[in-house]
Amino acid sequence: MREREVIALMRGGLGNDESTDADFDHWLVPGTDVRLASSVDRAVHGDCPPGEPLDIWAYRAVNAALSDLACAGVSQPAVQLDLQIPRSADPTMIVAIATGVRHAIRINGATVQNGCNTTFGPTALTTAVRGTGRSCALPPGRTGAAPGDLVVVSRRPGRFNAALAHLNRPAGDVPPGWLASALLGGVPELELGRLLVEGASVTAVIDANDCLLLTLADLARASGVGIDLDGSALDRLGEGLPEAVSVECLLGPPSGDLSLVMTLRPERFDEVRAVFARLGRRPWLLGRCTTARGELTLDGGVPVTQAGVAQRRWSPSTAFRHPLPCLPEAVVRGPGGPCVGRQAE
Question: What is the DSSP pairing of strand 296-298 with strand 226-229?
């Protein structure tokens, strides 16, 4: 079964098949101007990339879970953990996982709730997250995009995949700092998401911690629109990457990059660009919403074959070696500000 089928069956069985399609759920606290938002994510060690140190894996897992909250426009993030670990695990494994979790929590200004539950089995980490926002600033979710809206991504995608491509077929020199930053995948767009939601600047927003193509397809399906990608804009996304990558690599799995994909009315683009500028950033244009419900096209009509790219499976070559023994010093010693893994693009 596919993930979407499982989700639909679970929603029906739980009696909430009419719930809003979003990366999170939220509810209002009666008698206050406060709303709470929550989400949960699970990461399994060893899927991709192989040989990833446990502290880096745990760091990325917590960041990916918190990334869902960026769509909710909340602050004061909190984390609750459930660690699954083999009975044969030694203490160094536990310490490494705890180290990665601790630094992700610190960099994102989050807190831990209720410590960590533990079960035994293959190494996996389930992370439940929650945050608070104002009830007057409701997030748009995935369902508000309309034909004519611009489609924008908050960070240049493809860095994680470009790093894997280089490690599979090493060719030429790549700056070590870039490689380390790309393999960490970035951190959640919590501050950007909060500013966009509070300013009611976007019509829809979705977390892109899966491959960009599936993210765009989810947004189009939820909003009942099509998305036409701008080929020249996609070409610009690949410019400046140390490793030349194809559009398929930019759009497809495995993708460890964290970003937000959003839609907005064209007349509000300058307003959104100003929000990015406050954070020293820029938005990256991907295309425009169309009336072709659920369809992805390129340059005005060429169908984008979702199935082919989505089913693409990355596999390591015999040359692949993970280059990082542990979290870089810039993460371990750095403050909760810009550092390795917090790429501006």
Answer: parallel
**Amino acid code (one letter) for 342:** R
Q: Which candidate, 172, 162, 195, 207, places its Cα nearest to that of 21?
A: 207
Q: Tens digits of per-residue pLDDT, 47-61?
A: 778 889 999 999 999
CA–CA distance, 43 with 64 (Å, rounded to integer): 9
Tokens of 117: 């539950």
Write the DSSP symbol of residue 39. E
How far apart are alpha carbons 134 and 57 in whole angstroms? 33
Sequence-distant (6+) residues with CB within 8 A of 86 are 120, 121, 122, 123
- 179 Cβ neighbours under 8 A, 6+ residues apart: 163, 166, 323
- φ, ψ at 303 (rounded to 5°): -60, 140
Q: Please tell me the number of Cα atoms within 13 Å of 174 on its side-chain side.
A: 24
Residue 28's Cβ-side half-sphere holds a number of Cα atoms within 13 Å equal to 10
Q: What is the pTM of this model?
A: 0.88
Q: How far apart are CA 270 and CA 276, in angstroms?
A: 10
Coil, strand, or helix at residue 222?
Answer: helix
Within 10 Å of residue 293's Cβ, how many Cβ atoms?
A: 12
Residues 96-153 pLDDT 10s? 999 999 999 999 999 998 878 899 999 999 999 999 988 777 888 899 999 999 999 9
What is the residue-wise DSSP string for 173-217? ---HHHHHHHHHT----HHHHHHHHHTT--SEEEE-SS-HHHHHH
Amino acid (1-letter code) at residue 83? L
List, for the chain, all residue ranges whose pLDDT scores fall below the cut of 70. Answer: 1-4, 7, 11, 16-23, 171-172, 240, 242-245, 305-313, 334-345
